[in-house]
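Convert to structure. Protein one:
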Amino acid sequence: MLTIRSVNISKEKGTVKTPYEFITLDASGVTEDAHAGPWHRQVSLLGEEAYQMMNLDLVEFPYGSFAENITTTGSPSQEIPDLKHCQPGDRFHSGDILLEVTQIGKKCHGPECAIFKKAGDCVMPREGIFARVLAGGTLKPGDRLHYERKEYRVSVITVSDRAYEGVYEDCSGPQLERLLQEFCKQNHWPVTVSRTLLPDDPDRLRLVLENVIQEGYDMIFTTGGTGIGPSDMTPYVVKPFFDKEIPGLMEYIRVTYGKENPNALLSAAVAGVAGKTLIFTLPGSVRAIKEYFTEIARSLKHMIYMQMGLDVH
């Protein structure tokens, strides 16, 4: 939990902010603040620890000197020691107010910045974070900000008659789960992965997809049924769910691995977006899953943030 030390406003960008008795937040950010507007960096937060780290005199450098709207004290949680270890998608709430973290740090403007000129350095690019307002209200010094860590939910669906009937063990589903867990660990994302094993039944697959999408899962990965055999149907069931398709991703994977193995060109795998859910259909072999996920992982973080409406590069 964080405690608010100061709330601050500036009328012009690139200048220090002045402490106020309270600030009002609405859909544009902090009202009357120069940074309010329809973008992702509506509200800036900085811990007072940054001032302590620089041994600054609070008389000469009062809170708001680094252009933060909200100066805090404390740590978000036991797992997150300070603000800069938050992640986009994390949230803070205080009463009815709800803020969503959108960016960690920023580019330093260096000697041209009024803040840099005054302090000789600016900790905001290293220690500060930015958020957007999901629900507005009034904040003042002494108010508490409660932290909610973003937890990703992923559904892994194996489609295979023989695995479903127990003819052989499903190895592709567990392999996908391992790769996803490793990816999320590397990015410091808490994740819950659920696995479902289905026969080659279009109606049953369609029903599972409907439920998972409705529940707002972040990602769905299917494995199996992407070939041209009589029972292969996964991409054709999945594709009608797309609001937007991502054709280039699977085309690139097919061409990349098809150069060495022409059979890879027979895969009908697709990728796309259904609501807020990213969906990827992968072949059923463990080797193909490693190959596909390796390429998907290169842009997966960017895809997730784009889905969240974040301009994070």
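Protein two, convert as well:
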Amino acid sequence: MAELKNKKSERVAAPALDEAEVAAYLKAHPDYLSRHPELLEDIELKHAAGSAVSLIERQVDILRAKNQRLEDRLERLLDAARDNEKRSDNVHKLARTLIRAPSLAGVVAGLRQCMREDFGVDEVFVGLSPTFYKRHDIEGLTSVEPEGKIGKAFENFFRTRLVECGPIGEAKARLLFPKAEPLPQSAAIVPLEKEKNLGMLALGSHDPERFQPRQGKLFLELTAELLSAAVRARV
């Protein structure tokens, strides 16, 4: 009789639940505490300072922290939107400057001014293939011979015709920006008319982090296209 009673007791006894099962149940029934609000005041959680707080207080803290993260993310998105809008306006200004330039010298001067004032670029170099440009009297504009110093120093660039961004060594910096003081620490080298080999555009910055190997290339390529069109119209 006692054995039968024990078996019956085993059948009606609630099975023991581990923490994972409890957590899974609450996750599957998110309205559980809404149906049992009295538990919100009874359940205690350890605060970071060591004191105990009710579950509802902890939920308020969690929601407040989550809200702050969302606000921070929204602020970053707004900052990015403002930056993109400003950059778009500056690109339009650059396009107008290049289109309205009265001469090839005006194109280079306008490009240098916009790069410095609107984009924070410290140094600008424009090199053209001798097929299209043979003069040497425009500041900032150079005829780049394949066997010349610049042609040999940037041989890999002229071979691949790919945008290059990153730190620039002293020797190369002096070739491109001989009058710069101090010399740029990072640079972007961009082809002009990649397929037709019109030349190269080099932008230099005193900030070693300004141009990075993995940065976006869209702005650089757009600038090169605008410059190429302006040069083509005047050579």
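DSSP finds ten helices and seven strands in the chain. The two ends are 111 Å apart (CA to CA).
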